[in-house]
Amino acid sequence: MPSQSDAVTIIGAGLTGPLLAISLVQRGFRVTIYERRPDMRRVQLSAGRSINLAISVRGIHALREAGLWASMRNIIIPMKGRMMHSLSGELTFQPYGKDATEVINSISRADLNAALMNEAEKRGVAIRFSERCLGFDLHPGAARFRNEETGRETSVESSTIIGADGASSAVRVAMLKLSRFNFSQQYLDYGYKELTIEAGPNARHLLESNALHIWPRGSHMLIALPNIDGTFACILFLPFEGAVSFAALDSEANFLRFFRTNFADALPLMLQLRDNFRDNPTGTMVTIKCSPWHVDAKSLLIGDAAHAIVPFFGQGMNCAFEDCTCLLELLDRHGADWPKVFQEFERLRKTNTDAIADLALENFVEMRDRVGDPHFLFKKKVELALEAKYPQLFVPKYAMVTFHRIPYSVALSRGLIQDAMLDELCGSIDRIEDLDWRKAELMIHRQLNPLEQL
Questions:
Q1: What is the pLDDT of residue 3?
Q2: Beta carbons of 396 and 359 less than 8 angstroms apart
Q3: Taking the model in full, what pTM does it have?
């Protein structure tokens, strides 16, 4: 491992940058983070861009490896499943996993970001705020910054620069100038707006607190994730254009009428709805794929800078944290042989990040259109029954992604096989008692190899 003089510069103090910095410092590197925003712990940032996160096994593993998970337990709320709200207000609960141990955890992005920055500084990481990266000179390995408060411009040379600066990465923009750099971005024609459900007396949750609430309405949906202060962070997903869209909700009156029609049981709990409509921007959602992720030993893209995904599988942060796990394992194996580490990192990760990008888009359709469909819910019950009987062979796709560290690419390929099985097994029945178990066993043993590591 390196001496204390070896310097790594990380661009971006969101979630991935501080976590990676903490682990690099543990391995003897000297790390400085540059962040274009002011310090969010001291300056209130504009509302509307802080979707709650759902942290699961991959993210938990990364935090545990850094020695941080235990300290996060007081800012999370376990969510045991989805609570669907029908148009009439009827509730249907769908568990996420096979038992009470398989949950996802709601956590405030701001709380997690602050905790990671606090710990990074405690471990000796220097964080320079209000420093916008203007560009990156690839061959000398120098990044250029402008201080957003003073206007002063500086150039920082570093042996290694890691771009953890999100979907709009300045490091990636610089890499676009390389020959044979591949880049694609795909925006959803849906946007989102953040809203809030108020806490009750004594910070009591007014909805079931251990669930992710979904109001699925076909062409649109509302979701709500619990916060530790008794509120729920809500996100409204709508097309940008069309008869039912953000463009059509062009006044406060239209917005409130839309809520009364579609989310009548949520409306009385949303006392800030008018303010949220007026003040919170409409966000966009993008999938980004690119390659290569690295330039020799000089720079590397990580997290959303390399592979931004839409939020509908709750894996954006978990995937980025798993990037850190993979990168650190390679460092431990090869030492600071950056060209070798960067090349192998991309080889191991890109297939999997492409897979979770596709799975996230697929899960958007599932959440929006299918979670209220009785036949879909029946197939979910059959999935759990098959997993209980064949636990080393049949693991639901959602479980492979969320409750295991099975590679995303394996979850995608096996998920396609298992979905076809479920379609055939459940096509003409609506009760588990009528399931043809002999046929199921033959199909599973014929088409699925055992999962060696769960």
A1: 45
A2: no
A3: 0.94
